[in-house]
Amino acid sequence: MDTNQPTTSTVSTTYYAPQPGMFGTKVPSSIAFVVAILVFLLPFTEIRCGGTKLMQKSGLDFAMGNEWKTVAGALPGTDSNDLTNKTMSAGKEQSGYTQYFIIGALALGVIGLLLALGNSRGTSAGGIVVGVIAAGALIGFMLDMKKNFENSLREQAINKAADGANDSGMEGIGNTMNDIKPTLAFTPWFYIAVLAFLAAAIFCYLRMKSYRSNP
Q1: Which residue has the higher pLDDT, 187 or 155?
Q2: Which one has a higher pLDDT value, 55 or 17?
Q3: What is the pLDDT of residues 38-81, one digit of tens each?
């Protein structure tokens, strides 16, 4: 009897689940939310006249209800106190939801960062919702701010006509610069904040997809 039977060896294989990659981690969405929050420290809006920046205000200033900050040397040879008073009048927020929008966006940014640091599919889904709503809140802030600024200019024009005064209100600044009317401008930092919130939502979505493919 032949005892030399062929032997078979059993090779054990181990299954390794594919790694999620960079976009499947918390890093991209967390960084995007951090950027969006930090940008609130930088100027969001400016009041300009003939291309010259007169005053500016950061996102945090809006949230805290702070006054506009005069840009040093904006209009050489003019009375800085008079310039400040006139510019404040047009930049003053009227009745509306400007401050609520900006506070909501900042609060949502903090909430989004906490969700981005979580390790579940649910937190990623929450980050998507928060990022989109925060970007929408900033857009609502922009629209409401533009409306308030135009209303302020309109009121000053009415008051000037009623008082019969010359060079009063924001029109006075325009006269000092060849009757160029002041304008409200949103800085690139504002748009970076909007894009950062949207990017955070996208990164959270990609991370949520990685949870589906890697249970």
Answers
A1: 187
A2: 55
A3: 999 999 999 988 778 889 999 999 999 888 888 865 555 544 45
Residue recorded with tokens 């594919």? 18
What is the structure's pLDDT at 163?
60
Residues 19-43, buried b or exposed e (16+ Cβ, 10 A)?
eeeeebbbebbbbbbbbbbebbebb
In the chain, the number of structural domains is 1
Please state the φ and ψ torsions of residue 95, each to the nearest 5 degrees.
-60, 130
Alpha helices in 164-187 (DSSP H): 169-176
> Scanning the structure block, which residue is given the tokens 């400040």?
84
CATH of the domain at 65: 1.20.140
Residue in this structure with the two tokens 């400016």, named with its chain if needed:
46
Nearest to 142 by CA among 87, 96, 98, 192: 98
* Strands (DSSP E) found in 38-122: 43-49, 52-58, 69-70
Cα gap 93→200, rounded to integer Å: 30
Structure tokens at 77: 């040879």
Tell me, yes or no, whether 4 lies in a domain. Answer: no
113: containing domain: 23-71+81-89+96-207
| Residue 194 falls inside a structural domain | yes
Helix then strand count (H, E) for the chain reads 7, 4
Determine, yes or no, domain membership for 9: no
124: enclosing H helix or E strand:
helix 121-163
